[in-house]
Design goal:
Elements lengths: L36 E2 L6 E12 L2 E12 L3 E5 L6 H7 L10 E9 L2 E2 L7 H7 E4 L10 H11 L6 H14 L3 H4 L12 H13 L5 E5 L7 H14 L4 E5 L3 H7 L2 E6 L2 E7 H6 L4 H7 L5
Parallel strand pairs: 1-11, 4-9, 4-10, 7-8, 8-9
Antiparallel strand pairs: 2-3, 2-5, 5-6, 10-11
The structure holds adenosine-5'-diphosphate (ADP) and magnesium ion.
Length: 294
């Protein structure tokens, strides 16, 4: 058991000049973000989360987290089990709305839209900010219909030829086309685990998202399927912004440009992935990446 109470997170003095590098409170960012070491900001942010608190009933699962998700970056979220990675990820497309008793406070913007605005329609939001889950979850439908599902329900097209084109392009981008092009009518659930996960990625891509959230997308896959999905993540970065939760530090190091380290619901440290893994500033980050706990 770690001898750390939530309030002591961030109390280990980091080297001078490290706290909140590049962050200065403005009218917009009125509260000082004191708990996080490193630069929470991205040069070209796509999403900005500010002072986010999440509660499940009376229990607080996320404490005052502020973080930018930068355009065309892969940001990895790491930390011990139960530290709030999935909870924070779900805030970014309001998936927590579906959980009874879950309350989100703070402000999260996608470009210039406040995604928690009362007028926000979550259905298109979840197309703009798509999600890939831990366990591949294709629908019990054909490969074609899995990918065509989103474009159909979002009314992207009612033209069969256009839909065929979207399905093909999405499967190409997900690196699955060559493996399935001759059996688009077979069931998606009949594919291997790695193929199913790439099918789920194709399904997400089919509705033209801006941001893709991935919650431990490889944890149910074998090493070869994992390598394939990791390569894919790197290719997708050219067109999309990706936030990935992973329990694998090796994976975070391989796929991401920035890494955010969470601990007991707080964002302890964020920075360039290389820096986080070679020269972490916070002792808790160092303890985690050196395997002292986790
Ligand atoms: N649906 C839920 N209802 C109540 N508590 C939850 C729920 N989901 C997560 N939690 C709690 O919130 C905290 C963070 O969980 P989670 O975001 O799943 O962490 P991680 O993804 O880092 O393992 C944990 O203490 C967990 O028990
Ligand atoms: Mg999780």
């Amino acid at each position: 058991m770690l001898n750390v109470t939530p309030n002591s997170v961030g109390s280990v003095a980091p080297p001078a000049g490290v706290v909140g590098v590049g962050f200065s409170p403005t009218a917009d960012d009125s509260r000082v973000i004191s708990g996080t070491v490193g630069d929470i900001k991205a040069a070209d942010p796509r999403m900005t989360a500010r002072n986010v608190d999440v509660y499940y009933g009376d229990k607080q699962a996320i404490k005052d987290v502020s973080l930018d998700i930068g355009k065309n970056e892969v940001i990895a979220m790491i930390g011990p089990s139960g530290c709030g990675k999935s909870t924070f990820l779900r805030c970014l497309n309001r998936m927590n709305d579906t959980i009874d008793g879950c309350r989100v406070e703070g402000r999260i913007m996608l470009d210039d839209q406040d995604i928690y605005d009362r007028k926000m329609d979550v259905v298109p939001l979840r197309a703009q900010v798509g999600m890939v889950f831990q366990k591949p979850n294709p629908f019990p439908k054909s490969i074609y219909d899995n990918v065509a599902y989103g474009p159909r329900i979002h009314g992207l097209t009612d033209n069969k030829q256009e839909l065929d084109e979207i399905v093909e392009q999405s499967l190409i981008k997900a690196g699955l086309w060559d493996e399935v092009k001759d059996r688009l009518d077979s069931s998606g659930t009949g594919l291997s685990g790695g193929q199913q996960q790439r099918l789920c990625i194709a399904r997400t891509i089919a509705v033209a998202p801006e941001v893709i959230l991935m919650d431990e997308p490889c944890s149910a896959l074998d090493p070869i399927a994992t390598a394939r999905v990791e390569e894919l993540i790197d290719e997708l970065r050219e067109q999309y912004t990706i936030a990935i939760v992973t329990h694998s530090m090796q994976q975070a190091a391989r796929v991401s440009q920035r890494t955010a380290y969470f601990h007991l619901g707080e964002l302890v440290e964020v920075g360039k992935t290389d820096d986080i893994f070679t020269n972490p500033s916070h002792r808790l980050t160092e303890d985690y990446i050196t395997g002292r706990f986790g």
